[in-house]
Structures are given as C-alpha cells and as structure tokens.
Specification:
single chain; Alpha-Beta Plaits; four-stranded antiparallel β-sheet; globular
C-alpha cells in the first residue's frame, strides 16, 4: 500500500482547571510547531457535542512518514500537559472516494 495522505484525529479530556492553559498552549504553541513539521498539512480543533473526550484535533498528514521526521519527534505529545491529559483516543482515516 502506498504511503498516502490521511486524516489523523486525536481526542482528549483535561481537568477543567487546566482547560484555559491547555487550549492556549494547543493553539499558540502545539499547532504552529506541528504545522512546521514536514508532512503536517493542516490542523483544526473541535469540542465535542456528544459522548467521548471533550477536545478533538484533526490533522491532514501527507503520509505515515510524517510521524518519523526529527522535527515531529521533537514536538509530539502534549508537552507540559502530558501528565494531565486523560482519555486519549486516536483514529486515522484514509479517503475511500472523492476528489484527490
């Protein structure tokens, strides 16, 4: 199978007392750091309106190789919030049809 682009979704919870700092870090530090890495094409955050972890981030990634670059290995994870993140979930989706 070719190493093709896909969607990478991460969902997490964090205690309410850390939400403001976590959200600021995610938007101001984590997203810029990830999007500076080769192969990380886009990023957007969401808040759940249903079941499951409260926060979600959706990334468009050029291929599995993007997880192996030295740049990504330096910024992966949740930085200063690593020990505070709960209910981590990840899903990776590849398109079945539609425009390329």
């Amino acid at each position: 199978m070719a190493d093709e682009a896909f969607i990478h979704i991460v969902r997490v919870d964090i205690d309410p007392e850390h939400e403001a700092a976590f959200n600021a870090w995610y938007e101001q530090k984590h997203f810029p750091d990830l999007l500076a890495c080769p192969g990380w094409l886009s990023a957007k955050r969401f808040v759940s309106i249903g079941d499951g972890p409260k926060f979600a981030a959706m990334y468009e990634v050029a291929g599995r190789w993007a997880f192996e670059t030295p740049e990504f290995l330096k910024v992966k994870g949740f930085g200063p919030f690593e020990s505070l993140v709960k209910n981590f979930m990840r899903i990776q989706l590849r398109p079945m049809s539609g425009p390329a």
